[in-house]
Specification:
Helix content: 25-40%
Oligomer: single chain
Number of domains: 2
Shape: globular
CATH architecture of the largest domain: 3-Layer(aba) Sandwich
Bound molecules: pyridoxal-5'-phosphate
Order of helices and strands: HHEHEHEEHEEEHHHEHEHEHEH
Strand order of the largest sheet: 1-7-6-5-4-2-3
CATH superfamily of the largest domain: Type I PLP-dependent aspartate aminotransferase-like (Major domain)
Strand content: 15-25%
Length: 387
């Protein structure tokens, strides 16, 4: 099934209407949840769709994939049961001993999985600094490196990597580029248009936006052998997104444009309010003119910058933890990209081995009234620092 929309419509219209979904039999404007674990073949004993068993996929998941492919300007998207299983599929696809280049600081779960593969000699890894492209070129091995991994902005420092320039460096050396732009969804960052070969998002975050789904998605420009490889890995791992979660994801996607605009506005208001605060050492947010990668971010996120920021508080690690504990409106929870604002002491979550400032507090700005968020953080800082 290929969903069709009128030509010339804006992408926000197409996404709000789930590509003008309309069930051909009933006229329903909401896709139903395809529960079946297996599919009966036709009278010629041929499969009726690309899927004929639960691990291949299902109708609801396929609809969600078509919507995301449209958002990404991709030929095809593949949905997985988590962001981690999608990233693991990419690592699985690499030949034994492949050399890959990754940021030194990136989401700790993906970094941990990359290091896990490296510890078994499945891959060889070199590192660059996410906010400094000049550190990438020297570690790419011409004709040897197979994959360059960009996470932009990187979690939890929110340094920005120029995707177009990274793609030129990767392609010149014969490597492919994967971009994890989970923190700035395709309403603002279209990685494939900027030269990536694979665009990845943890759909658990902004794409779904309601903290009730775990999902990951890989989007590709061509339905090539890479697509077939990833499809087969997903099938053999049994990591296809289930239909119930696909249904919730479709519902979340319809409001993506509205939500991320508000997430971004709230993050900017928080960043501006706290950047010169007496209890705060530094605010890390690409939307601030003082951010070293501000100009690249402006161009790469369509002037929106996203809903994620971090603050480094003055004082000790205990003071930082106390700020988080004292919040009453922000939830002291991990994850990001939802309608509700979350706050966390990152070192507690990523562990002692991960290179993150011990006083760093990560904030996912939700869509609440920004005055309530600012007041909450103000009172939490006051309580933590009132000696
Ligand atoms: N990439 C980034 C940047 C993330 O923030 C996360 C999760 O926080 C992941 C990948 C992994 O996604 P998931 O939690 O959906 O497995």
């Amino acid at each position: 099934m290929k969903l069709k929309t009128e030509k010339g419509l804006s992408i926000s219209t197409k996404i709000a209407q789930a590509l003008h979904y309309c069930d051909p039999e009933t006229g329903s404007v909401v896709p139903s949840i395809d529960h079946s674990a297996t599919y009966s073949r036709d009278e010629n004993y041929q499969p009726r769709q690309a899927y004929w068993y639960r691990r291949d996929g299902n109708k609801t998941t396929q609809i969600a994939e078509e919507i995301i492919a449209e958002l990404e300007n991709a030929d095809a998207s593949l949905l997985f049961s988590s962001g981690m299983s999608a990233c693991t599929a990419v690592l699985e696809m690499l030949p034994a001993g492949a050399h890959i280049v990754v940021p030194r600081v990136m989401y700790h779960g993906v970094l941990g999985q990359i290091q896990n593969f490296a510890s078994k000699d499945r891959i060889r890894v070199s590192y660059y600094e996410a906010g400094d492209l000049s550190s990438m070129e020297p570690v790419i091995e011409n004709g040897v490196t197979q994959l360059v991994w960009v996470e932009t902005p990187n979690n939890p420092n929110w340094e920005v990597t120029d995707i177009s320039s990274a793609s030129k460096l990767a392609h010149r050396a014969g490597a492919r580029l994967i971009v994890d732009a989970t923190a700035t969804p395709p309403t603002m960052t279209k990685s494939l248009d900027l030269g990536a070969d694979i665009s990845f998002h943890s759909a658990t975050k902004y794409l779904n936006g309601h903290s009730d789904v775990s999902a990951g998605v890989l989007s590709l420009n061509q339905q090539s052998s890479t697509y077939e490889n990833l499809f087969n890995i997903r099938k053999l791992h049994g990591t296809v997104l289930n239909s119930q979660d696909a249904f919730l994801l479709i519902r979340g996607l319809r409001t993506l444009f509205l939500r991320v605009e508000k997430n971004s506005q709230n993050a900017m208001l928080l960043a501006r309010h706290f950047q010169n605060h007496e209890c705060i050492e530094k605010v890390l947010y690409p939307g601030l003119e003082t951010h070293p990668n501000h100009e690249i971010a402006k161009h790469q996120t369509d002037g929106q910058f996203g809903g994620m920021l971090s603050v480094i508080v003055k004082g000790s690690q205990t003071d930082a933890i106390n700020v988080v504990r004292n919040c009453r409106v922000f939830y002291p929870a991990t994850s990001l990209g939802g309608v509700e604002s979350l706050i966390e002491h990152r070192k507690t979550v990523s562990g002692d081995d991960f290179p993150v400032h011990e006083n760093l507090i990560r904030i996912s700005a939700g869509i609440e009234d920004p005055a309530d968020l600012i007041n909450d953080l103000e009172q939490a800082l006051e309580k933590a620092f009132k000696k």
